[in-house]
Structures are given as C-alpha cells and as structure tokens.
Amino acid sequence: MSEKIKVEVKTIDAERLKKNHMNRQAYEDRINEEISAIIEDKARVLDLGCGNGDLLKMLMDRKDIYGLGIDISTEAVLNCVKKGVSVIQEDIDEGLLQYKDKSYDYVIMTETMQAVQRPDSVLQHIVRIGSKAIVSFPNFAHYSIRFGLFFKGVMPKTSKLPYEWYNTPNIRHLTVKDFKEFCAKHDIKILKEIYLVKNGKRMRRKSMFANFFAEDALFIIQKKQYI
How confident is the model at residue 14 (pLDDT cuts 50, 70, 90)? Predict the structure, then answer.
C-alpha cells in the first residue's frame, strides 16, 4: 500500500471516529436532558455507572438534588470529585445489597446495563432501592445491526456500539423487546418509554416498530405493587 493511500485511509478512519464521537455525545446530551425533565427538585438520586459525573452535576445545578454516583473506574471517580459530585468506587454487580429499600427517589443506570455481569440481579436491585428507576441502553435490534449481521456476517459496529468484538466493554447485548419481556416476567412496571433515533433525536411517538428503528431506548420503571 502506497504512503498516499495509507494517509487517505488514516484520514477516513479519523473522520469516522470523530463522527461517531459526536453522535455518541449527541445521544448522551439528549438522554441527560430527558432525565433532567423527569427528575423532581430536591430528589434523592443514585446514579450507577455515573462516569465523569456530568449527569449528576447537571441535576445538582438544575434541580438541587441529593446525588450519589457509583463507578468502578478510578479515573471516573477522580473526575467526579473534581466536579464536586459525591461518588463511591464500587462494582455495581457486587455493591448494591447494602442499600435499603426505597432509600432513593430515583436510581439511574444509563448506557451501563450492557456492561454488567448480572443485569438481571442489578435490575431487581434498582427497583428495590429506588421508588422509580431510569434505565437506558443501545438497542441491539436496530435495523443497521440486523443488516450488518445478515449481509456482512460480522459483529456490526454503530455510533452507539463502536467497538470491535475483541475490545468491547459491552458483554450483554439486549433489545427493546428483550427488556420489555424481562420486565413483564419479573413484575416490573414500565411507566414511560422514550426512543431515540439518529443523532439522539426523539421518535415522535411511541411506535410498535421501536425495536426496529430505535438506536437507543430509555425507560422509567418501578416494582409492581400488590395490595
């Protein structure tokens, strides 16, 4: 391969990475805005997989919440501390038993469920700990993923799932349909569902085709109460 072609390939790859990063940021910003619109003033919020603490910081500034973040990453924890966000370094799969029932108004888990070892256990805990829970995840049934698997025969990459199969942190791939079926099976009530398409834009209305068209899904859930 000539040097000129190598440079062109590197340029294309760099542009693709930049575009994917911008698209992921658009999704993150939109999800954060959706959550901000849901959370009430002065709510108690637990954010699992809080990352750099951007969401909690925004909620603290806008809604005067009491917030606590949990993340396993040392770098993420340090960034939270720099922003004045209360945070604990902990493994979500192992650290939720210590939290009392309904000790938070909201438990948030955005773009994290696909990276935990036992999402079934984690989901049961978040509806126990929180009066409500907010969950978002990339939809693995999106049409671009289906087409990639069918026509190319390789693990697909999208702006929401940009990793190679050998270096991805995502170990659990789920779909909108999978999540709804899990909730129905485990007595979890879906209070609201929001679907995002390209560049984080919201689908205009809830659609029976969300499992095909939505790149990302956000649900408000709670444990069903039986009297």
Answer: very low
